[in-house]
């Protein structure tokens, strides 16, 4: 279901993406697949941000980060930090956004992940005129490829 949510995100269908990511979180909690749950929480955060709900997005990415730390998933941790940065940027908190993006960049760099360049781009752009929802869509597309089916 997470990949279905991401496919909706790629197509710009944000409401179905949000719905499917939320359903995936529920199912994965019931089945106990904690790694996939962290991935679904991150997808839900991306969808919430694209729907203009940055506070909710930050909450979902925080949930994903806590779970990813608990299970030792550096990729999900990096993704959560990226989403937290995007959510804080959307709420006009560039210092906190940059903090999370630096955390994501360090993790992606350790993993030699191509997402590191996208995070560098976020850190390099001026705070005004940025588009976290658009960059979240790019992230969703990349994550679907890297995380595989869930």
From TrEMBL:
Compositional bias of kind Low complexity: 126-137
Residues covered by region (Disordered): 109-150
One Pfam family named in its UniProt record: TPR_12
Protein name: Tetratricopeptide repeat protein
PANTHER family: RAPSYN-RELATED (PTHR10098), TETRATRICOPEPTIDE REPEAT PROTEIN 28 (PTHR10098:SF108)
Biased segments, Basic and acidic residues type: 115-125
Upper taxonomic lineage: Bacteria, Bacillati, Actinomycetota, Actinomycetes, Micromonosporales
Source taxon at top rank: Bacteria
